[in-house]
Write a structure and sequence with these properties.
By secondary structure, the chain is mostly beta strands. 11% of the residues lie in helices and 34% in strands.
């Protein structure tokens, strides 16, 4: 009888231990790949006049734009890309930084950039952006006269730490509405981003 009771207690203990171990297991979420088309990031001014206007904020987790003051990862206006980390750079109408975001530019393809190099991550700072703006210094080339085209630089991958400490990588495909194969700056509407991105939803995981 004592043996039966002892066996029963052992089975009960093992059952509790098993349940406890199951509870401790954290589910690994799959890495997400998405295409965003025609994200409009307008600005006012230009043509030698001061540039201004509200930035369009985007969240990699939801894959959507947002009006939230806190739950955004990148903010776009014209060719400018800001991150939700660091401090204001001094641009008119830019959003306040409330998150822990940072970024850098990697050379390669979406397939070849397989992990985050954390040592290269930078925040926005006064008079300095983690993703620089300007022809040949960031993600695009401005052709100037006569075409005036803005073209993404081939082999440029933007790598981000999100506002809440996750990671994403992004490849800008086009700056023109509907991503024409051969855009015409005088015929096609600009400031419409089409881009691929990959989002790593697991905290602390720097792989893609």
């Amino acid at each position: 009888m004592k043996t039966i009771k002892l066996l029963g207690l052992i089975v009960l203990f093992l059952g509790f231990a098993s349940c406890s171990n199951d509870d401790d297991i954290t589910e690994t979420l799959p890495v997400e790949s998405n295409l965003v088309q025609n994200l409009h990031a307008p600005q006012e001014g230009e043509q030698g006049q001061p540039v201004f206007g509200e930035f369009v904020k985007f969240n990699f987790e939801t894959g959507q734009t947002t009006t939230s003051d806190t739950d955004w990862d990148i903010a776009l206006r014209g060719t400018i890309i800001l991150i939700n980390g660091g401090e204001k750079t001094g641009i008119d109408d830019e959003p306040n930084r409330t998150g822990n975001g940072s970024a850098y530019i990697a050379n390669g393809t979406m397939g070849s950039v397989i992990s985050v190099d954390a040592s290269r991550l930078k925040e926005d700072t006064v008079n300095s952006q983690a993703i620089p703006t300007g022809s040949g210094t960031g993600w695009y080339i401005y052709a100037g006269s006569p075409t005036h085209l803005i073209t993404p630089i081939a082999g440029t991958i933007l790598v981000f730490k999100t506002h809440d400490g996750k990671y994403a990588k992004m490849e800008i495909l086009s700056y023109y509405k509907d991503a024409p194969a051969n855009p015409d700056a005088f015929e096609n509407f600009d400031k419409y981003y089409t881009f691929n991105y990959v989002y790593q939803p697991n905290e602390g995981d720097t792989s893609f």
